[in-house]
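Example for tutorial group B:
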């Protein structure tokens, strides 16, 4: 009988469920988190994923479509619950994320982010990236013209 050795390059394809909360309600958000789910709190071009892991609120914060970010954790208690609950007032959007308990949490966040960006793009709500208001000068220098390109 052959021994089965899992392929380290193979990833299980698991699905998550994600839906925007129709209203920014901190209490509903906390109930979703405390039920074993995750919340994605979107503000501008940043997203914060919040969930409970090992009796702590875990918060992963980073700009959309970036590998850079930071993590904060807080003990699960009334004070920290109230602090997180009140983040609904700073949010542009809140998404509820459901996933299987054995799923890789980083994979859940990556899948959720792709879905969030797609949703915001399709609905015309994706925040504009920073604009470089001096980019017109680059065109003028290339063409030897002053004040941009002629139209």
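The residue assignment follows.
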């Amino acid at each position: 009988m052959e021994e089965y050795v899992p392929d380290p390059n193979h990833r299980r394809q698991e699905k998550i469920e994600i839906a925007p909360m129709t209203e920014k309600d901190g209490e509903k958000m906390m109930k979703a988190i405390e039920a074993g789910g995750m919340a994605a709190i979107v503000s501008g071009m940043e997203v914060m994923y919040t969930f409970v892991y090992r009796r702590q609120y875990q918060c992963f914060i980073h700009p959309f479509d970036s590998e850079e970010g930071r993590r904060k954790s807080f003990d699960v208690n009334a004070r920290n619950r109230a602090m997180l609950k009140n983040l609904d007032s700073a949010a542009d959007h809140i998404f509820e994320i459901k996933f299987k308990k054995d799923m890789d949490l980083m994979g859940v966040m990556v899948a959720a982010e792709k879905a969030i960006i797609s949703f915001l793009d399709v609905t015309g709500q994706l925040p504009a990236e920073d604009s470089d208001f001096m980019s017109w000068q680059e065109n003028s220098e290339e063409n030897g013209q002053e004040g941009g390109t002629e139209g």
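Confidence is low (pLDDT under 50) at residues 1-6, 130-137, 146-151. Compare this with the pattern of hydrophobic and polar residues in the output above.
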